[in-house]
Amino acid sequence: MNILLLGSGGREHAFAWKIVQSPQCGQLYVAPGNAGTANIAKNIALSVIDFSGIHQFILDNSIDMVVVGPEEPLVKGLVDFLRSKPDTANLPIVGPTQLGATLEGSKDFSKRFMQRNNIPTAAYETFTAAQIDAGLAYLENQNLPIVLKADGLAAGKGVLICLSLAEAKESLKEMLLEAKFGDASSKVVVEEFLNGIELSIFVATDGKSYKILPEAKDYKRIGEGDTGLNTGGMGAVSPVIFANAEFLKKVEEQIVKPTIAGLEKEKIDFKGFLFIGLMNDDGNPSVIEYNVRMGDPETEAVLPRIESDFVELLKGIATGTLAGYDLKISPDYATTVVMVSGGYPGTYEKGFPISLPSDPSASIIFHAGTSENPEGKLVNQGGRVIAVTGLGENLETALENAFNTVEKISWEKAYYRKDIGQDILKLMN
Questions:
Q1: Contact criterion met (CB below 8 Å) for 101 and 75
Q2: Which domains does the chain have, with CATH numbers?
Q3: How many CB atoms lie under 10 A from the CB of residue 3?
Q4: Which pLDDT does position 358 carry in this prediction?
Q5: Burial label, 350 (beta-carbon count in 10 A; 0-12, 13-18, 19+)
Q6: Using an 8 Å Cβ cutoff, are 105 and 268 in contact?
Q7: How many CB atoms lie within 10 A of CB 397?
Q8: Residue 155 has pLDDT above 80, yes or no
């Protein structure tokens, strides 16, 4: 198969790494890709939201399947666009339609979907600028802390946890009246704060059947001990000890099954990955949010644990034949440590040459924000630069393998968290 993969981050390098292992992959193209995908596939200088360019590339290169990595093209309707063209109407695509992608594109839409389908989630109300007085009054009757979420896509930065009533009121005004997150906060979801431990569940679905992929826990804050600003993710661990068989059964019965049934009942065409952010509150799951693609950096910890043919999985999703796919998962651990540019998630400098080890034994180096400079040297190009995944029979070994490789990678002002996985090790011991 000739496959077109859209995206440029660590998630897409992990996808590419897994796709090219399949005997079913002929030529893999990645648009726009990064310096890591360039080593195993053919990078194409195409934006993920250049729908006409993507359509023409599909025709010119006899593409047999499209795999959409990030959320933006899905929320903007890429799948609908390609389906509206007679020559790509029946092309297998991994990714939901625009309506399906609204589960991520609008927090209010997804909360209402959960309510209609009796899926456990935090209590909430949604407000617009015209309802600011009602929103401020609502806050006065809520328990603290309270969560404020920008309704639209805000690059992972649109969620605020407010510890005081004054902070909550000020933040609500900034979001609604001062467009703190631009158009994304033209509506704000005010939500009950959930206690417990967070984790992510990943579901592959063709809209009717589903397969639950390995779960993962990620680390969102920049500082050790989960301090400082939120980032796109500083690391991940899979499997997760507090997601035991009993808990995962509850997730399947109370969340996954009603979600897939709800999509079908509401005629929402969803052929892709559903990333369900969960809170485990004393063994009971609640949905924090839906995303309509795989997570990053969780993908870099999840995909190495899938032992069955990954292209076969993608094909099953895109062609409605997922029920016949035999998913095989390794019992081993995968732990991912993300290396970032100094200053991220604020301002940071680009263009520093990166030194990589020639032999990252028992670990995999995934590129995220990398490129080659005019001299052909590997340099940092983004905030999150490299994701190193260590593998091992147990968590200690997997972490040791990840950090051993991380210590051999360098560029000026590089930073990473040294405490990834340590909280889970404490729970295990």
A1: yes
A2: 3-93 (3.40.50.20), 123-192 (3.30.1490.20), 197-428 (3.30.470.20)
A3: 27
A4: 87
A5: middle
A6: no
A7: 16
A8: no
Measure CA of the first residue to CA of the last residue in the chain; give whole Å: 47
pLDDT band, residue 154 (cuts 50/70/90): confident
- Which residue do the tokens 């897409």 mark? 12
The encoded tokens of residue 15 equal: 């996808």
**In which residue are the tokens 């981050």 written?**
9
Q: Is 166 exposed, middle or buried (0-12, 13-18, 19+ CB in 10 A)?
A: exposed
The structure tokens listed for 237 are 């661990």
Angle at 413 between CA 217 and CA 355, to 5 degrees: 85
Check whether 361 has a pLDDT greater than 90: no
Count Cα neighbours of 97 within 13 Å in the Cβ-side half-sphere.
12
Please name the amino acid found at residue 405. Answer: T
Q: What is the per-residue pLDDT across 59-79, written as a single tens digit (0 to 9) for each?
A: 999 999 999 999 999 999 999
Collapsing DSSP to helix, strand or coil, 50 comes out as coil
Between CA 78 and CA 146 the distance in angstroms is: 35
